Amino acid sequence: MSFTMNSGFSTKRRRGTPGAFILALLVLAFGAIAAADDSGVERVDKIEQQLNQIKTDESAEQSRVQRDERAIRQLEQQLQQLESQHATLVRQANTLGITSDKLKVEAAQLQDSQKQLAAGPGDEQFGSAMSRYLGSHQFTWNGSVSGGFIYDRGNNTNTFALAFQPLVIYRLNDWISFEGEMDGLLPQGSSAQFALPVAMFQLFLNDYLQVNAGLFDQPFGDWYEVQSASWVNRFVTAPLLYGAEAIVPPTELGLQLRGGLQWGSLGQDVDYTTWVANGPGFDSALPHPVAGQTLNPVNNIQINTNGKAFGTRIRFYPFPLDSNLGRLELGASTYDGKWLNGHWFNSWGIDYAYLNGNLQTRGEYVQTYRQMPGGGAQDKRQGWYIQFGYFLQGLPLPRLPFGLDRYIENLEPLIRYSGVNQRALVADEISTVPGIGFSGSPSIFSPHARQVALGIDYWIEPSIVWQTEFDIELPRAGGTLFSFNGASTATASPIRATPNDHAILTQFVIGF
Fold it and tell me: Hey, which residues does 354 pair with through a beta bridge?
């Protein structure tokens, strides 16, 4: 902006007047300010233009970033799809590879089978084919063989004896098996006696239920089923109530259910056995039933019982295994049935077994009664036994010469007391022929028989033992002796004092 001086002013006035000078200065100042204002406006406009340009560039950059982010997300999705497709292809390739290998193996097996068929089966192939056909069929042999010597002072007997008791178990599969046992006895080395005490099927339905059907050891108590095997029984003979004058049938033909469960800690168990069978039978060779008849050991479908027998046994184990109190078994049994056209036969018993370290003991008490025909007095019988044994391995023995301490540690001293009470005996049924498990002593054929048995066992292996037993018969007077002697009626006579008797039995037993 330019300023032009007015020519109308005189020279004198300008030079001589101070106001004009001041006015001139003001005019120049305002002119400078005006000039400065014009320059600032221009700079502001430029700054606004630059800001607008920056905003425009920023908006464009944001649009570009958003486009890039969308492109990256699309690429990630495509990558995930490719990875999934790759994994699927790898699985398919593996499957195809396995299938191809399997087909190759099957083709090779087929070729081998065709070659074998063309060549015919050999011994090995035939055996393998039979094994595949039979599945898990297995035969297992168990049992025992025993030979011994018997000396009986009162019966004037000294003889050798032999017993062979094979037991076979045929396992069909995991839940079906068959068990059969045969007893072969040579009492005097001249004639043999054979029996089939066990022949039964076993069905294992689950962990808590088993079904047995056929001919089986009497589950009453523990003796017949658990202790009667010659290498399990600590003595050579049986207790009186399970020996020659047994008061409970030794076997049954029927059906039984059995099982068990753990009711507490490990070792605290309870098991049960319940059964139905043909029932008891008594000597059918006699003209008429009388008190004291021997139980018929043959259990078959021809026994005239007019009913069935029912029995139940329960065993209870109170001590846990980690209690250090040993193993205690408490049992109770009952057995009731009918014989001879509906006459009752009832029995019950209690038993125990205790094992703690080297000490073992067991015992039992049994009572039976039989209803007699014609309203006669009941045929009551009681029997019991108690025994103890101790392995000398637990004794702190000093070192003996010749290594005798090693042999002493294998010894087990034993003692047993058993007895039977009954009203009468039948003379025609008394036999003094000795055999394994029976000394042949006439003193045990007494209505009130008593016996003390002292034993010493030398254990070579857990199932190989040499046993020696010394029997002391202590019968009591009392009761009646019936004698038929071929007659149709019995002659009764009282039994007075019976002489005592002693017997020595020894046997070597191998269990397998």
Answer: 328, 361
Give the whole-angstrom CA distance, residue 210 versus residue 337: 23
The C-alpha R_g of the chain, in whole angstroms, comes to 54
| Mean pLDDT of all residues in 332-360 | 92
Whose structure tokens read 């017949």?
224
Task: Work out the angle at residue 261's Cα, subtended by the Cα atoms of residues 258 and 263, and round it to the nearest 5 degrees.
Answer: 145
| Predicted confidence band of residue 359 (pLDDT cuts 50, 70, 90) | very high
CB 236 within 8 A of CB 509: no
Report pTM. Answer: 0.70
CA distance 230 to 273: 23
Helix (H) or strand (E) holding 111: helix 18-119
Contact 278, 285 (CB under 8 A): no
Q: Residue 420: CB partners within 8 Å, gap ≥ 6?
A: 240, 241, 245, 247, 381, 382, 383, 447, 448, 449
Mean pLDDT rounded to a whole number for the chain: 81
Q: Are the beta carbons of 488 and 459 closer than 8 angstroms?
A: no
Tens-place pLDDT, residues 12-35: 333 444 555 555 555 555 555 545
Distance CA 174, CA 145 (A): 29
Comparing C-alpha atoms, which of 133, 403, 382 is closest to residue 247?
Answer: 382
